[in-house]
Design goal:
Elements lengths: L1 E5 L4 H12 L3 E5 L9 H11 L3 E4 L13 H22 L2 E7 L22 H16 L4 E6 L2 E2 L6 H9 L4 E5 L3 E2 L2 E2 H17 L7 E4 L6 E2 H14 L6 E5 L19 H7 L6 H16 L1
Parallel strand pairs: 1-2, 1-3, 3-4, 4-5, 5-10, 6-9, 7-12
Antiparallel strand pairs: 8-11
């Protein structure tokens, strides 16, 4: 299958190119300057030139805190830009998978969020991603799936795992928030799940395959739990490690509000698409090992 992926350097886009090619697909990475989500005409033009069988909308404005002061730009890229990708896929009749986020919820529930739960983003970034979901489903409900992912990490680009390992290289203790909980999810696993959903969309007209789905790793953790597991995995391979000082969200002020509960219930995507991502702890070992062997 010929699959176009928006984004060239992002974590999920990079992993998709790697995993897609390994699975025998023809993967095409599309990004700036040819495809610019802030320029809908460039999006349509580039997708038409690529002529893919399927499109994965992975590119986005992801600077969560900066979005508070760049609200308009975040909405242009994550809202209108996502809508333009959907319009392009619709013109081509290509299956579309769009990636969204746990930040569309306010984080106040005391259980994992279902797709049917009320949305209520508390940050500009979350609001912009919600706008993107709505734009995609409005433009191309016939053959698109929106996948909400969360707490993404990988061997590529900037992410929490790489930050923790860097900090452990020059300090003995790292302060990490302990009262936010979610599902740490490897972008490598996300890529595998996306490819399965793409295949399902391309091979069946079943309307149940379309719509919004949650797709995160099995298992949950706080950021502090996540950090402790990162350091343990690193130490097991002879890499840097540090003690974790557990702090409250109120002790670590950021411009954007983060959901206290980012856990997503992934039962629907398992039931409908047959997708169940591995436990985050096992996938973390793989990513840490890759990071350390890459720098050895």
């Amino acid at each position: 299958m010929r699959i176009a992926v928006t984004g060239k350097a992002g974590q999920v886009a990079t992993c998709l190119i790697e995993r897609g090619r390994a699975a025998g697909h023809e993967m095409i990475a599309l990004g700036r300057p040819e495809l610019d989500l802030a320029d809908p005409a460039s999006v349509l033009r580039t997708l038409e030139t690529a002529a893919p069988d399927a499109v994965v909308s992975a590119a986005a404005y992801t600077a969560v805190d900066k979005a508070e002061s760049e609200n308009d730009l975040a909405h242009i890229v994550n809202g209108a830009g996502a809508g333009a990708v959907a319009q392009g896929a619709a013109r081509l009749g290509a299956a579309l998978v769009h990636l969204s986020t746990d930040y569309v919820f306010d984080g106040k529930l005391n259980r994992p969020y279902l797709e049917s739960d009320p949305i209520g983003p508390t940050s500009a970034y979350g609001a912009s991603k919600l706008a993107g979901e709505r734009a995609v489903l409005a433009a191309y409900p016939q053959n698109s799936a929106v996948l909400r992912v969360a707490w993404v990490y990988s061997p590529f680009s900037g992410n929490f795992v790489k930050t923790m390992l860097r900090l452990a290289g020059d300090r003995d203790e790292v302060s990490v928030v302990a009262d936010q909980v979610g599902n740490p999810t490897s972008a490598l696993d996300i890529a595998d799940g996306v490819l399965k959903v793409v295949k399902n969309l391309a091979s069946s007209a079943d309307p149940n395959l379309r719509g919004v789905f949650h797709m995160t790793a099995a298992g949950e953790a706080s950021w502090a739990d996540f950090a402790e597991n990162i350091f343990a995995a690193s130490a097991s391979h002879g890499g840097p490690s540090a003690a974790v000082r557990r702090i409250a969200t109120t002790d670590y002020s950021t411009p954007a509000n983060r959901p206290a509960n980012s856990r997503l219930d992934c039962g629907l995507i398992m039931q409908v698409h047959g997708v169940a991502l591995p436990d985050w702890r096992a996938s973390l070992e793989t990513v840490v090992f890759r990071l350390q062997t890459a720098t050895a």
